[in-house]
Amino acid sequence: MANWTVMNLLLFALVAIPLCTKIACLEEALAKNFLLKLETEVRPVCHQRALSEWNFHTNLTDSNRKKSLESSIEYSKFWRRMWEEASHFDWRSFKDPDTRRQFSMMTTLGVAILPDDLLKRVGADHYNMLKQNMESEYGKATVCDFYNQSKCDLALEPDITEIFLTSRNPAELKFIWLQWRNVTGAAFKQNYTDFISLMQTVAQMNNFSSPTEYELRSYETEELTIRDFREQIDSLWSTLSPFYKELHAYVRFKLRNFYGDEVFQERNMWAETWESIEDIVLPFTNKQSFNITQRMQELKMTPIDMAKLGETFFVSLGLPKLNELFWKNSIFEKPPDSDLKMICHPSAWDLCDQQDFRDSCLDENYNLNRSFVFGKDGANPGFHEAIGDLIALSVQTMTHMESIGLIQHFEYDKETEINYLLRIALTKIAFLPYGYILDKWKWEVAYAKSPDMKKSLNCKWWELREEFQGVGKPHNINYGEEFLDPASKYHVISNVPYVRYFISMILQFQLHESLCKEAKNTKPLHLCDIYNSKRAGLKLKKLLSLGASKPWPVVLATVTDTQKLSSKSILKYFEPLYKWLKEENVRNNQTPGWRTTTTCNDRPLTKIKSSKGYFRAKITCPLDYIGSGVKFNLNLRSVIPYCPIEALPSTFVKEGC
Where along the chain is Zn(2+) 2 bound (predicted)? Predict the structure, then answer.
């Protein structure tokens, strides 16, 4: 590999702009040629790394893991050399903002900046060693059958997922749920805490104040700081939280009617989506079901069939077909009756050579939407996820599903509309708090410098889940800090920042509304289908072609005419359902919201006085002492996360606290 210097590139620069004589102009021309050459040189190194990683993920052998680690080391070495060359340029003074942006991204070296004693520990890249150890064990993890506990070969896909979709036995669900946390999160705790320490080093050596800033660098622009971006995320959640609470109250009511007091809240392995309980919560059971999974089984459709339907949709917009390599190399589902150990997680792969793109372990939702989104990085990580999902918003409309045979002879009325929107909300709206808190836990707890936080990694996770998601730990389980429940999620141990999915949930509806306008749609937003709209396709193609070449707010504005993320479109899409939920909860005497009880003993007890004597509580809101009593400036909800209401003296509550 050539070791470029500024002088090596001088000839290229003089050819490119022979009339330029100023030093600054020459340096910027040198820099542009450096980037062009880099684009060519990086492809074979990137391809080899991606290919070895694919081989490891799809066949978890020691040999494949070793090859994957070796290719990761070579990839890190390559980028360290390029980083050293790029550091010679005074890129911050460049006039071209795109060139500045590319250098800004490249001069954050990432994990490759780690010193040799870490990169070569145990004969391999230490970062990837920790990561792949956890990924390998995750892919191989199995649990025991509830009804035959000597049978301990149930894998996450398809066995455990199927149990959570179909079982109505709370004892079985709790049994499987706890086992999974034993064989993943609890088993990974030491590796993951080592991984956190390593990320602290990576961030510091890349000149970031924390791993949080390092992980969010893709969202930062010259005009938008990381702090500004986090405030945007918090603001989005605050506008969507009331809708989620209405959905939560309605679902809680239906589950209690179905199960009684013995309700197991986790409706998939992480309770991030609730589609498995649609048969319990859909209000109008006399109306046609839109369960496409059942219909696919009736039609004996394979994942390949669904991927081809997705391709047909994109082609209708004027985009090209997928190439033969895609159909040849993709692994659409785990081979049945096979002992093959693989990480069967729905994913799309770009093998860096501009022609080899692959899919792995797809479900019906993934097949319908992401098979086509290849070839370029998104403007930020949320864009890649959002592009595919916005297409699914068209594909899943009732008229489109009828046109491709996935539903039959439906009659559209108000009740059908509510059933339809509620089904989608069980996936989209139910997901929002989980998508919001998973990285929030990392930023505020796992990456925190406070030793007290490190002692309460799991407890703080449950504080966040209760506060934002309204989901608590299962009852009657001895459950402490020996567990690490966030690490039972693949994205955590694989170090894939999860906030991208929260962002994509907002973006997909923003983009959907804009493309529907371009397609001259006159229907309500939830009925819009952009199939066959070349106008919408041109706008989408422009967004895809920009990739990460421009700051993400600029890319967003090319489609939406705004540079800000907004919750208006998602609220507009679900407006009929939101209104119905509020009315239904009033009719059923259901109050949105919940009481939280988890405390982590990391806040000092405040001594306060009531008519029953002194009382110690964990207080988060300001206190005003008036005489011998106590009055809170905020209402009781501010206290509840740290103090169960049962512990408060009755007169204390009556005084307005």
Answer: 385
Residues 6+ apart with CB under 8 A from 155: 141, 142, 344
Helices (H), 120-160: 126-140
219 is in an annotated binding site: yes
Annotate 210-254 with DSSP letters as a single string: SHHHHHTGGG--SS--HHHHHHHHHHHHHHHHHHHHHHHHHHHHH
- Tell me the one-letter amino acid at 12: F
> Residue 444's CB: how many other CB atoms inside 10 A?
15
Nearest-angstrom CA–CA distance, 462 and 451: 18
The pLDDT, as a whole number, for residue 76 is 84
Whether residue 26 is contained in a domain is answered as: yes
Q: What is the pLDDT of residue 588?
A: 98
The DSSP symbol for 415 reads H
Integer-rounded Cα radius of gyration of the chain: 27
Number of domains composing the chain: 2
What sign does the dihedral 115-118-124-126 (CA atoms) show? negative
Among residues 46, 79, 107, which one ends one of the domains? 107
- Asked if residue 488 lies in contact with residue 184, where contact means CB atoms within 8 angstroms, the answer is yes
What's residue 390's pLDDT? 92
Residue 447 among known ligand-binding residues: no
| pLDDT at position 124 | 37
Angle between helix 534-546 and 499-518 (nearest 10):
140
Query: Are the C-beta atoms of residues 396 and 424 closer than 8 Å to each other?
Result: yes
Looking at the chain, the number of H-run helices and the number of E-run strands are 28, 8
Q: Looking at the domain assignment, is residue 335 inside a domain?
A: no
Token pair of 143, please? 């649990």
Which structural domain range is residue 639 located in?
A: 606-654
Closest CA to 461 of 431, 476, 477, 481: 481
On the 0-12 / 13-18 / 19+ scale of CB atoms within 10 A, 257 is: exposed
Instruction: Determine how many CB atoms are found less than 10 A away from the CB of residue 419.
Output: 20
Give the tokens for residue 376: 């370029």
| Domain contains 621 | yes
Q: Tokens in use for 283?
A: 């209000």
With 0-12 / 13-18 / 19 or more C-beta atoms within 10 angstroms meaning exposed / middle / buried, residue 427 is middle
Q: Does 51 fall in a domain?
A: yes
In terms of Cα–Cα distance, which of 168, 5, 160 is closest to 89? Answer: 5
Query: What does the DSSP assignment read for 419-455?
Result: HHHHHHHHHHHHHHHHHHHHHHHIIIIIT---HHHHT
Q: What element of type H or E holds 358?
A: strand 357-360
Inter-residue contact 410 to 398 (CB < 8 Å): yes
Spatial distance between the Cα atoms of 67 and 57, rounded to a whole number of angstroms: 12
Regions of the chain short of the pLDDT cut 70: 1-22, 115-125, 289, 337, 363-376, 601-657
Is 500 a known ligand-binding residue?
yes
* H or E element at residue 402: helix 398-403
CA-CA distance, 506 to 571, in Å (whole number)? 10
With DSSP H G I counted as helix, E B as strand and the rest as coil, what are the percentages for the chain, rounded to 5?
A: 60, 5, 35
* Domain final residue pick, 107, 133, 153: 107
Separation CA 439–CA 419 (nearest Å): 32
- Contact at 8 Å (CB) between 616 and 606? yes
Q: Please give the full DSSP string across 98-119, using - where no structure is assigned.
A: HHHHHHHHHT--GGGGS-HHHH
